[in-house]
């Protein structure tokens, strides 16, 4: 009885408020890596894998293109692959790639990548991830020492990482002690390790289907997105059929509105991990290694792939010999886009979506609005607008509560 008179009032408020508030969900594009210019702005590693101890040589830029491991295909997609054309003799390494953006992206950034194919197969360990400038190029142990000396943290965020015959993606943060993962109520993935200083990092396993392996490719690939915000680090994955309209409609130049993305696969709220303390500006990295200190560990390798060759040893049964085991060991990437809350043309409304705050429990998800999106300001790009951000944040929280009220009234 009471609902009838209330609804028109609430709905009319929404009509008035939405156009005003919409831009605060928006991110401005700062860099598009795609098509023939995809490879501009990346450094090629050009050395053995002395970081994850895989049995690969990560080629330099000339060899990468010369040997056909990096190229743009007819579809206009960038391909990064493991050598599948040459015989590798015992005690030799196989050629592969590791590329890192020259640009580093600060807290307040959003990264989106659309991929058609991700490397998979026994011994294969691909990753799309981000890292602070000092890690892991100096080695993990050195890095820890450096951290202690420098008293600030430079860390990494793994958006896509899997090994061997896993059929799902894992997401993780790697930090020194003091950053913990707490599982927020509307995280879609399953939390595993909670302490981000453990060797695995704090890990969340994807539960949506087709996030990795043959299933990912068969579905036409999908999109990964990561929001790197003062309020936390939030990672989404959508298989091709489920990509949100905002992403389908985004161009290589347009801003993007993330307000309808719904709950992320992995949600690392800043309540238990101070993002600005533990993370410096991040470079984006694609790499493919073989075996090494995850895929090649007997405890990981044997159950999945131990029977795939005569010796049960990752290197012997895969890396050595002809390359046809690696026909699926390639990334095919439509684009990588980096966005910022500030953007090239600064906007004063630099608020970002924080998926995990106590407010979420009051704005529970509904069929109509899968949000749970309470908002926190993200002032890092334009510190001068911090006051405005705070005010806008307050208004948005109010809006979310209103929406929650309206939807729960209707339902
Ligand atoms: C890895 O190799 C590169 C190139 O030789 C070198 O600059 C870097 O210091 C090495 N890192 C480690 C951890 O050994
Ligand atoms: C988070 O870390 C930053 C940088 O170290 C610091 O300025 C800030 O006060 C910290 N925030 C909290 C809530 O501890």
From TrEMBL:
Pfam families cross-referenced by the UniProt entry: GH16_XgeA (PF26113)
A single GO BP: glucan catabolic process
Signal keyword on record: yes
InterPro entries: ConA-like_dom_sf, Glycosyl_Hydrlase_16
Statement: the UniProt record of this protein carries the keyword Signal: yes
Species the sequence originates in: Tricholomella constricta
Domain of life: Eukaryota
Keywords: Signal
Listed name of the protein: GH16 domain-containing protein
SUPFAM superfamilies: Concanavalin A-like lectins/glucanases
Signal peptide extent: 1-26
């Amino acid at each position: 009885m009471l609902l009838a008179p209330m609804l028109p009032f609430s709905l009319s408020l929404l009509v008035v408020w939405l156009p005003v508030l919409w831009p605060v969900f928006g991110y401005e594009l700062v860099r598009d890596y795609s098509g023939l210019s995809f490879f501009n702005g990346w450094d090629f590693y050009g050395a053995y894998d002395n970081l994850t101890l895989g049995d690969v040589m990560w080629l330099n830029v000339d060899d990468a293109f010369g040997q056909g491991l990096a190229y743009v295909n007819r579809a206009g997609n960038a391909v990064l692959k493991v050598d599948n054309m040459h015989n590798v003799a015992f005690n030799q390494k196989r050629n592969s790639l590791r590329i890192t953006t020259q640009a580093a992206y600060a807290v307040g950034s959003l990264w989106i990548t659309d991929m058609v194919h991700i490397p998979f197969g026994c011994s294969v360990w691909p990753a799309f991830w981000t890292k602070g400038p000092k890690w892991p190029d100096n080695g993990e142990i050195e890095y820890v020492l450096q951290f202690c000396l420098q008293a600030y943290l430079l860390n990494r965020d793994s958006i896509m990482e899997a090994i061997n015959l896993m059929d799902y993606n894992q997401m993780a943060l790697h930090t020194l002690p003091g950053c913990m993962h707490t599982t927020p109520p509307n995280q879609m993935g399953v939390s595993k390790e909670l302490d981000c200083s453990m060797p695995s990092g704090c890990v969340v396993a994807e539960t949506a289907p087709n996030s990795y392996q043959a299933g990912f490719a068969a579905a036409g690939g999908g999109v990964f997105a990561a929001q790197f915000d003062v309020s936390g680090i939030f990672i989404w994955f959508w298989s091709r059929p489920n990509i949100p309209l905002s992403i389908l409609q985004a161009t290589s130049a347009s801003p993007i509105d993330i307000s309808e993305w719904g709950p992320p696969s992995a949600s690392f709220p800043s309540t238990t991990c101070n993002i600005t303390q533990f993370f410096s500006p991040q470079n984006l990295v694609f790499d493919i290694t073989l075996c090494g200190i995850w895929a090649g560990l007997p405890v990981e390798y044997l159950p999945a792939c131990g029977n795939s060759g005569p010796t049960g040893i990752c290197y012997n049964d895969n890396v050595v010999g002809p390359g046809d085991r690696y026909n699926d060991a390639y990334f095919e990437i439509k684009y990588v886009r980096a966005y910022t809350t500030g953007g090239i043309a600064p906007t004063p409304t630099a608020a970002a979506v924080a998926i995990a705050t106590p407010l979420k429990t009051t704005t529970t998800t509904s069929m109509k609005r899968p949000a749970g999106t309470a908002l926190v300001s993200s002032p890092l790009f334009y510190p001068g607008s911090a006051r405005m951000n705070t005010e806008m944040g307050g208004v948005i929280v109010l809006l979310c509560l209103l929406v929650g009220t309206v939807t729960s009234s209707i339902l």
